[in-house]
Amino acid sequence: MTANEPIELADLPAIGPAAVTMGVFDGVHLGHRAVLEATRRGASELGATSVALVFDPPPEQVLSGSAPPRLAPLATNLARIEALGIDVAIPVHFDEGLRQLEAEAFIDALSPALAVRGLVMARGSAFGRERRGTVERMQQMGTSAGFEVLIVDPVEIGGTLVSSTRIRKLIGAGDLAGARQLGVEPYLEGTVVAGAGRGRELGFPTANLRFDYRPALPPLGIYAARVSSAVAGVEAGHPALLSIGTRPTFEASGETLAEAFLLDFDGDLYGAVLGVEIVERLRDEERFANVDALVEQMRRDVEAGRAALARA
Asked: Are 180 and 157 spatial neighbours (Cβ–Cβ below 8 Å)?
């Protein structure tokens, strides 16, 4: 697994002949997978190493000062990329200096660590200063520099381009099935931290998640979910409920919180990094007249969650 901290171009590891693609790859959706598969296949044909350069922070953050919420944290995206057969996924620090580089200068800066033999780009994409690094311009450079430009057609579903932006909108609207259709399982990952302890007092101990990134959240409510990978004695696929809300029955601060209740589990998860896949929306967030009414609803939520996970 490649290191998760972004590095400068000058610090790229020595790899040698490489087929290279680049981008943010947030969520690693179907469109990304088409590009990554072309990179893997191109590297094999060229006798080279397949390399994905993953920009962090996203260029949009450098351009506008703010970035959209993420479908997954950087480390998870890197792991997903390598799980698809890419030899090396390298997080590259994106800043104003990198933004101002002409595309040709960017390719030159990959040397000597990477000897580019193939450059994989989606048709219609561009990179570098003012996005002047078009497919056509890179083909011209490749002719003289000795690399081939491998072009991938964008992936469309339902006549619309598959993109991270589209998937964020689907998740934000609560269309979890729509996000899955585009290749992304709605997902949250956070460190389990101590909360107010009310869940345990009520018989439903929750894992309160603290995020090290700004996650793409679905609407407030209660969801059926699954643990995405083994952690602290919990197996991957373990059933859970996920609450995304402001705790309106108690003294709500207005802050949106994410809490996971792992069914049939009573261990200690404090400090663990917990990833959860959001499977199905069960109900809206509600304010209850008293604690007894809340507990009764939570019992119904558990049964509804088990049924939803069984269907899934």
From this structure: no
Grouping H, G, I as helix, E, B as strand and the rest as coil, residue 196 is coil
Residue 116 pairs in a beta bridge with 18
Please say whether the beta carbons of 101 and 129 come within 8 A: yes
Write out the DSSP string of 153-190.
Answer: PPPEETTEE--HHHHHHHHHTT-HHHHHHTT---EEEE
- Residue 249, pLDDT > 90, answer no
Provide, for the chain, the percentages of residues in helix, strand and coil under a 3-state DSSP scheme, each rounded to the nearest 5.
30, 30, 40
Q: What is the pLDDT of residues 97-147, one digit of tens each?
A: 999 999 999 999 999 999 999 999 999 999 999 999 999 999 999 999 999
Q: What is the pLDDT of residue 1?
A: 41
Q: Which residues contact residue 290 at a Cβ distance below 8 angstroms, ignoring those fewer than 6 apart?
A: none
Considering the segment(s) 186-311 as one domain, its CATH architecture is: Beta Barrel (2.40)
Decide: residue 223, CB within 10 A, 0-12 exposed, 13-18 middle, 19+ buried: buried
Token pair listed for 230: 């083994």
Sign of the Cα pseudo-torsion (70, 71, 76, 79, in order): negative
Domain extents in the chain = 9-161, 186-311
pTM of the prediction?
A: 0.92
What is the spatial distance between Cα 98 and Cα 101, in angstroms, rounded to a whole number? 5
**Which one, of 193, 199, 301, lies nearest residue 240 by Cα?**
301
The residue length of the chain stands at 312
For residue 51, the 8-state DSSP code is E
Tokens 């603290």 locate to 210
Residue pLDDT, tens place only, 41-82: 999 999 999 999 999 999 999 988 888 999 999 999 999 999
The CA-atom distances, in angstroms, between 184 and each of 32, 169, 180 are 11, 12, 5
Q: Which CATH architecture has domain 9-161?
A: 3-Layer(aba) Sandwich (3.40)
